[in-house]
Amino acid sequence: MANLAVFASGTGSNFVALADDLAESAHSLVVLVTDKQNAPAVERAAERSIPVFSAQYKGREREAAERDILAELERRGCDLVALAGFMRILTPTLIDGFPGPIVNIPPSLLPRHPGIGAIEKSYHSGDTELGITIHYVDHGVDTGPVILQRSFKRDEVADLTAAEARIHALEHRWYPTVVRDLLDHIALGQIRQGATQ
Ligand code: GRF
Known about the structure:
Distance between the termini: 20 Å
CATH architecture: 3-Layer(aba) Sandwich
Oligomer: single chain
Shape: globular
Helix content: 25-40%
Largest sheet: 7 strands, mixed
Bound molecules: 5-O-phosphono-beta-D-ribofuranosylamine
Structural class: alpha/beta
């Protein structure tokens, strides 16, 4: 078995999808890391008795908060980090300091529309396909190696709300699948420490 940490700042629907999927596996979601103590994701963790680590970013350099996070990840024996709506950009302190893979799920078809507001930007662009990307995190913003993309045709959705719902449904369908597959490989020793692909 292998241990997952999820980082989230908001609603936590992807956190829930991951937690509920892993609850039926040999792996464990050992900690929710957040920068927002009152985020709905924190309530979702409490309902599932999953520990929460609330990182203190305010009034400090990001690196100081990240060193605290790294200590927590080590203490909990985390093998994999899944970002799920964590609204802080990670610095090399965390990216290079964590020995396992870190993955993210931006709601766009990278390299199209990286960064914040990706769903709106995708919807209002002339792109004929919308979708999600799951990728390894590197030092850029939404630039790391792609693991999986899933898409649908823009003209299949009537408006932005429908596009958002369709994108979230893809996230909830595919993030647990990819994360569980990575955890399986880690547990079998098939992903070396620090690997990004
Ligand atoms: C998701 O849309 C994900 O693509 C993005 O942040 C959002 C988080 O939503 N990275 P939730 O908090 O998991 O509901």
